[in-house]
Amino acid sequence: MTVSSRVPARSSTLRLEPDHQLWLDMLARLRAHHPDICRHWFEDIEPLGLDGGVLRLRAHSPVHRDYLSRQCHQPFNDAARTASGNLITVKFLGPDEDFAAARPASPAAVEPKLPARPVAEADAEGPAARAAIEALRSPGLVLNPDYTFENFVIGPENRMAHHAAVCVADKPGTVYTPLFVHGSVGLGKTHLLQAICLAIHQNKPGSSIYYTSCDDFMNQFLEAVQAGIMTRFRQKFRHVDVLVIDDIHTLARRERTQEEFFHTFNALYQARKQIVLSADCKPEEIPHLEERLVSRFMSGLVCDVQPPSYETRIEILKTKSRIRGFELPPEVARFIAERIDSNIRELEGAISKLQMLASVDRRPIDLELARSAFNEPGGRVEPKIQIQTIIDAVTDYYGVKVTDLQSKRRQRSIALPRQVCMYLARKNTRYSLEEIGGYFGGRDHTTVMHAVRTVEDRRAGDGDFGKVITALEERLKGEGRAASA
Ligand code: ADP
Ligand code: MG
């Protein structure tokens, strides 16, 4: 399969031909420079075309669109600019959005329909009321497309919680309501809660699902009280099909919010709607939680998630790498799983670190790299490269003088070695763009950025030039290593 055949083309109704090549170049750059945000489904993103400096990219679901808008805007803009050499901005669209369409609320968290204006609150005016009404319009927290059942690794530590979550997603409001999942931090509670939302959204697109944190529930409640728009608040929370509230233990000591939540809970429960809650402890262990809430929380199914075993950790590492589009060698997975044994979030952090190190140094993800990431013996000692070493190597190779590099002279025989110096300094030292620009003839940071881009592009496109740069880098590393030894 060629790379381009993986990018779907369905553009019959569009005004512009999609710019596939630009998108493929961007994708290559994103994978090289921002591996941590890249996901395997980026290959399903559809480039709709370039119009007036805006490149429109279509994601295959609103959840994916939200992930792109929230996490990826800047890197995509940078990639579009570098790949095209033009000032392009990227706009992300969902599957049903048109060119001109504004960004609608994510259907994964459908906003319950509010009555136009409840009569009792007809006089709720003023900035506070408007702000509270605006807060009530929020479609809930954004769901992470990675948090699916498919990406959840099942082990003895979470089997029951996973099974219950799947049942709830299959038949909301019938089997276990409420479902209460508890466990300490980083063990997958939020992942399971969001997996329920994503699955219901997919299987029953018409359902209204509201996913949020207990803190957000509390803030919306307090704003609604202050603004005198409690009818609206109740309309919103008591008329959803599925209410999912993360970290409900923050209800501790919030008496008024507890009272309101009790009524919300009862209304949904009586209407046979689904409620899903998570907390860092069992219901009866939440400090200062009213007894009647404790018993409500225990009336459905309470289950826990425990720290993952070694085998589960290995599987999680493999799954997380696969989501990011690469295979983690088994010995590296074992190496990490032996060192991080409680919090799964840290396993993910370790993968991000490896990916970054691998991309900065252009090295494979192997045991040697993992050892350096964990600062353990056997890892490669990073050579310390000085700017002077770079200057020596470049002036030697190109036969120019350092005073030329630091001058304002612009002829090509000097401009190119100067750009190579800037590129090597940027890639191999910790100096900022401003410092590098200042050093080489008092230039500003945009000149350095331009130099880096020019050398990168030429390195990719011109084999002989590429060899020169690689040889210079080898020399730097050799001298750096000798200096640090
Ligand atoms: P919690 O809400 O319990 O603090 P999260 O749900 O935020 O924890 O999980 C932390 C990280 O660990 C997330 O990236 C999540 O995807 C991952 N994770 C936790 N459990 C699993 C699992 N069983 N399989 C795959 N990933 C998991
Ligand atoms: Mg959580």
Give a short synopsis of this structure:
This protein is of the alpha/beta class.
What does the secondary structure layout of this molecule look like, with pairings?
Layout: H1 20-33, E1 46-51, E2 54-58, H2 62-71, H3 73-84, E3 89-93, H4 126-136, H5 159-170, E4 179-182, H6 189-203, E5 209-213, H7 214-227, H8 230-237, E6 242-246, H9 255-270, E7 274-279, H10 291-297, E8 301-304, H11 310-323, H12 330-339, H13 344-361, H14 367-373, H15 387-398, H16 402-405, H17 412-428, H18 433-439, H19 445-461, H20 463-484
Parallel strand pairs: 2-3, 4-7, 4-8, 5-6, 6-7
Antiparallel strand pairs: 1-2
Helix pairs in contact: 1-3, 4-7, 5-6, 11-12, 11-13, 15-17, 15-20, 17-19, 18-19, 19-20
The site of adenosine-5'-diphosphate has 18 residues, from helix 6, helix 11 and helix 13.
Provide key terms for this protein:
single chain; 485 residues; alpha/beta; five-stranded parallel beta sheet; three-stranded mixed beta sheet; elongated; disordered N terminus; binds adenosine-5'-diphosphate; binds magnesium ion
Low-confidence stretches: 1-16, 102-119
Rg over CA atoms, rounded to whole Å, is 27 Å
Q: Quote the beta fraction.
A: 5-15%
The proportion of residues forming helix, as a percent range, comes to 40-55%
Record the strand order, biggest sheet.
5-6-7-4-8
- Count of DSSP strands: 8
In N-to-C order, the SSE pattern is HEEHHEHHEHEHHEHEHEHHHHHHHHHH
Q: Which hetero ligands occur in this complex?
A: adenosine-5'-diphosphate, magnesium ion
Major sheet, described briefly? Answer: 5 strands, parallel
Rounded mean pLDDT is 86
